[in-house]
Automatic annotation (TrEMBL):
CDD domains: OAT_like. May also have succinyldiaminopimelate aminotransferase activity, thus carrying out the corresponding step in lysine biosynthesis. Pathway: Amino-acid biosynthesis; L-arginine biosynthesis; N(2)-acetyl-L-ornithine from L-glutamate: step 4/4. The gene is argD. This is Acetylornithine aminotransferase. Its EC number is 2.6.1.11. The keyword Transport does not apply. It comes from Candidatus Planktophila sulfonica. GO terms for biological process: L-arginine biosynthetic process. Pyridoxal 5'-phosphate binds at residues 101-102, 127, 270. Belongs to the class-III pyridoxal-phosphate-dependent aminotransferase family. ArgD subfamily. It catalyses: N(2)-acetyl-L-ornithine + 2-oxoglutarate = N-acetyl-L-glutamate 5-semialdehyde + L-glutamate. The keyword Hydrolase does not apply. HAMAP family: ArgD_aminotrans_3.
Length: 385
């Protein structure tokens, strides 16, 4: 901890444990303690740690060719772009690769300027990243306020409210951006007709509809992309987190006519679509398909939703697939997170009374059962203090 404080800038504060190895959904710290990893690198390690397919493809790629830049083509980049295109169900979709969620949303914001308009509608409490453009889209005052002035023309409205969206989306709107389910805000699920309504309002006004699927993409919700239940398609999908299965990789996918907005010279990235990161992503997609992980996500997610709701002190459980948020009856989320860690499970507290869990998508039912026992015990112990 002393070394951390001396050498690293504070971002989430000083960590209390140091992780050194992992296998599947179990990680080990420097003292040899093991933990069930129910945060999975903040929803990134969709196949868990050291998945053989990722180890194999990454090892093979780094031993063959490391980085080529976007001046040259590489088979992995081509294959991954075609694969993502297929998953969106739009043959005309085109992909821009970058390295993170913030960069994917920066790309979407720049793309929207190519409509000739600049006004943007985003939602309060949404998280879209920390760089200046992405932060301007983010709707959390605590993250925004120290860095004002941010980009002009971006309006934040309450999440899930179709009536207010209908009012604020006009012919001057360049783009509307929402998370299909707000992740960092504590796993907030909108009314079932919300995304469909947004599609309508954007169509009526010629605005781009952007779904930030950085957290809800790549199978997290039991679908490839977190919006699929709505039956509509956005104009732009942003991805990162799970895409690289633990390696840094982001993507901004533009569908339909939006795919033609960027022309050569408009945008770029040195590392985006790196052969090694894309090798990992190809392994992620093929493992999700081969191991039938999407239906597994539904099954384990359903089990956790049901079991966690029965624990005394838990007042609400919500989410989709393996992105689950809980509300507690007291502001003990930080203490509970620490207690779970002591008892051998890693979780996250996005708020004083809010818990988020996002395990690897291939977490076993047995591990989910063990997690429920640990969580339940931790709840009992923190409720007594
Ligand atoms: C994490 C996250 C981001 C930012 O991704 P980074 O890789 O940290 O830049 C953007 N949007 C959503 C929905 C996220 O969950």
């Amino acid at each position: 901890m002393k070394r951390w404080q001396k050498a690293l800038q504070d971002n989430y504060g000083t960590p209390t444990i140091e992780l050194v190895s992992g296998k599947g959904s179990v990680v080990k710290d420097a003292n040899g303690n093991t933990y069930l990893d129910f945060l999975a690198g903040i929803a990134t390690n969709v196949l868990g740690h050291a998945h053989p397919a990722i180890v194999k493809s990454v090892t093979k790629q780094i031993s063959t060719l490391g980085h080529v830049s976007n001046f040259y083509a590489h088979p992995n980049v081509l294959e991954l772009a075609e694969k993502l295109q297929k998953l969106t169900g739009d043959k005309g979709a085109r992909v821009f690769f970058c390295n993170s969620g913030a960069e994917a949303n920066e790309a979407a914001l720049k793309l929207s300027r190519k409509t000739g308009k600049y006004k943007v509608v985003a939602t309060q409490e949404a998280f879209h990243g920390r760089t200046m453009g992405a932060l301007s889209l983010t709707g959390q005052p605590s993250k925004r306020n120290p860095f004002k002035p941010l980009i002009k023309g971006i309006k934040h409205v309450p999440f899930g409210d179709s009536a207010v969206m209908k009012r604020v989306i006009t012919k001057k709107t360049a783009m509307v951006i929402v998370e299909p389910i707000m992740g960092e805000a504590g796993v907030i699920v909108p009314p079932s007709d919300y995304l469909k309504n947004l599609r309508q309002y954007c169509d009526d006004n010629g605005a781009l509809l952007v779904f930030d699927c950085v957290q809800t993409g790549m199978g997290r919700t039991g679908d490839w992309f977190g919006y699929e239940y709505s039956g509509i398609k956005p104009d732009v999908i942003t991805l990162a987190k799970g895409l690289g299965g633990g390696l840094p990789l982001g993507a901004m996918i533009a569908l339909g006519s939006a795919s033609k907005l960027f022309v050569a010279g408009d945008h770029g990235s040195t590392f985006g679509g790196n052969p090694v990161a894309t090798a990992a992503a190809l392994s992620v997609i093929s493992a999700i398909e081969k191991e039938k992980i999407l239906s597994h996500v539904d099954e384990v997610g359903e089990y956790l939703l049901t079991e966690l709701a029965l624990i005394p002190g838990v007042t609400e459980v919500r989410g989709a697939g393996l992105l689950i948020g809980l509300t507690l009856n007291a502001p003990v989320a930080k203490a509970l997170t620490k207690k779970c860690q002591d008892l051998g499970a890693l979780i996250n507290a996005p708020g004083d009374s809010t818990i988020r869990i996002a395990p690897a998508l291939n977490v076993s039912m047995k591990q989910a059962q063990k997690f429920v026992v640990i969580f339940s015990q931790a709840m009992k112990e923190v409720s007594h203090v």
